[in-house]
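Ticket 4471: requesting a sanity check on a complex prediction with tryptophan. Repro inputs:
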Amino acid sequence: MGGESRETFGSRLGFIFAAAGSAIGLGNIWRFPYLVGVYGGAAFLVVYLAIVVIIGVVCFISEVALGRHTRQSNVGAFKAIKPSWAPVGLIGIIAGFMILSFYGVVGGWTIYYFFKAIAGFAFPNPGASTDLFVGFISNAISPLIYTAIFMATTIYIVYKGIQDGIEKYSNIMMPALFVIIIILAIRSLTLPGAGAGLEFYLKPDLSKIDGETLLAALGQVFFSLSLGMGSILTYGSYLSQDENIPFVCTIVPMMDTLIAFLAGLVIFPAVFAYGFEPGSGGGLAFITLPAVFNEMPAGNLFGGAFFFLLFLAALTSSISLLEPVVAYMMEEHGWERKKATITMGGLIFVVGIACSLSNGIWSGFIVLDRNIFDLLDFISGNVLLPISGMLTAIFVAWVWGSKNALQEATNDGTIELAWGNLWANVLIKYVAPILIAVVFMSSVGIIKI
Ligand code: TRP
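Returned structure tokens:
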């Protein structure tokens, strides 16, 4: 099992930055603000925060504890406790493979947009922003070049290993990300007319909270905290035995939530200040914002900073998507790290080619009403992640045993966890699996709430 020679994070901060890097990604910077806008502003924020506490932190602790206890990544961790559960780990690996194939394509877009922004968008009219985006992503070749650069960077960092790769680069990229987002938030908040955006973002409309809001918030918590596919479990397996799990598992979700919140403070005031619509969903970051930067004084600097931010966020998440796949090949199939990163990263890129082409020349290839890109997004995000997240919670609570998990999380009771019993007896046993099951069934249309 290679336990003796297993790599570990060099410091607590290294783990925190790496795990926060995994969590903080495209999900925070474009998806969260957009959901806040659609689902009732501050009301959504309150629901989101509650779910982070009730389920997010709960599942986060269980993944880290399981990883650290077994010192194995996804498949091995389940196997070490009960071999018949290994397939649950495999679902996570497959989900990670799928997510990274389209995540890498979007990662490539951030690089292209970074260069475009620096050069100045120079749109003759706002509609030109849509034309630029649609024209770019539907091109057969050029998005692939940027995706290849993004994936090669991801492969390089993962190939360098835990301390010399993931930890070292997270320690540089995460502080940079914090600095950039704060500068951008200040810029946005001081624009004339920023107030309307703030009001939209922060004034609660409680009447908008309904079942759908809850579902959207739950799904977002899962995706944003990187739960359900083994990113966090695998990082936990590199955490040293004397580390304080309750502490790191609280601070990381807090950082993730803070960045998501700040992303909204960057986006909404600027969008409103220049009179754009905030509800464009996926187009918000790549269509609306370029039009905003086009109008803004020194917009090429701020636009460049924004897309660099998006690139950093995407990169620290993509390495956490590749690492479990690589660790799986190393642990279960005895591959060298080098062979595993290059081969699996390469295969993921090949699937990414299909994703990218499905926005253009292959757009006619439709399965379940979706092109390849959206299909992989749907299967991984709406089907595989909730299933493996739910089974992981059940596994930790009922197969491994929540008391054993709590022992691990508290270093055999030497660390105080005030709500430890609530965690072990109620939250991980019942609340988390049941709520995840409800979200899953409604997202695939089995039930309606
Ligand atoms: N959390 C990241 C984001 O917000 C994406 C991500 C990385 C992820 N690893 C994951 C999502 C594992 C689900 C599972 O963009």
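Notes from triage: The mean pLDDT is 93. Leaving this open until the requester confirms.
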